[in-house]
Each structure stands twice: as C-alpha cells, then as structure tokens.
Amino acid sequence: MKIALIAHDEKKPEMARFAAAYREILRGNELFATGHTGKVVADATDLPVQRFNSGPLGGDQEIGALIAKNQMDLVIFFRDPLTSQPHEPDVNALIRLADVYNTPLATNIGTAEVLLRGLGAGFIDFRKLVNGDETQHEQYE
C-alpha cells in the first residue's frame, strides 16, 4: 500500500513518535511524505520515504495528484488546528480529494492509529470494490 504522511510544524514530533511506534506496520508499505515530514519520519524509523516538495512548495499538492489518479491508499495528515501557520499545507483540499476517491485520511493520531491497526490486521481493498479498476470518475470528465 502507498501511505502519505504530512504534518504541520507543531505536529512533526508527534508524527515522528507515531511512525516509530508503528514502524513494523509501516515497513511493509511504500511511504510518501512532504519534504520535512519525510525527513522526520525517515530519521525516526530508518525506513525509506519518498519525499516530495515541502508543504509551502506544493508537496501536499503532489500527494493530492496521486490521490486524484487513485494511486494513494492512505493519507495521514497531522494538522495543527490551533496554531498552524499560513505557509503550512491546507488539509481541506486533501480531504475533498480523499472523499471523492474514497481514500482513507486521518487528521489526528487517534484515527491514524485505528487505520494502521487495520492494516496490521489485514486489509480488504474496499477502494477497488467501490472504484473498480477505473482511475478517473467519469461524472467529472
């Protein structure tokens, strides 16, 4: 599975702890992340992480493009709703894309934990059942 990891600045330490705690589950998957979050996760886990641009330079949009191509299976975006900065990625666009393409998206550690524990227990690819083999939604073409 392809898993995207994004964290606002204040949530990066939490993402590092989370990734380290779930290292064994994450190990069996392809990890993608925005620039600095990817470095934080790689340093905390010693796992390979494909890093996109940082959030302010469009890394979240690169992840969004993979969601729109139905090429991302799970997104974990630890957002800071209280002190996020103007330069940080906006989760709303990713939430919209995740909803359109039935991609699970967690915005906090509790939901992320449930989703990763589900991966560890075995995963039914419900997105293929819902989306079929198509990578585009015809009603939007």
UniProtKB/TrEMBL annotation:
Chaperone is among the record's keywords: no
SMART domains assigned: MGS (SM00851)
Superkingdom of this protein's organism: Bacteria
UniProt key word Lyase: yes
Enzyme class label: lyase
InterPro entries: Methylgl_synth (IPR004363), Methylglyoxal_synth_AS (IPR018148), MGS-like_dom (IPR011607), MGS-like_dom_sf (IPR036914)
Residues that coordinate or bind substrate: 8, 12, 54-55, 87
Catalytic activity as recorded in UniProt: dihydroxyacetone phosphate = methylglyoxal + phosphate
Record-annotated active site: 60 (proton donor/acceptor)
Keywords linked to the UniProt accession: Lyase
Membrane-crossing residue ranges in chain numbering: none
Residues annotated as domain MGS-like: 1-141
EC code(s) of this entry: 4.2.3.3
A Pfam family matched in the record: MGS
GO molecular function, one term: methylglyoxal synthase activity
Role according to the record: Catalyzes the formation of methylglyoxal from dihydroxyacetone phosphate.
Similarity remark: Belongs to the methylglyoxal synthase family.
HAMAP family, sorted: Methylglyoxal_synth
Name of the protein this chain belongs to: Methylglyoxal synthase
Gene: mgsA
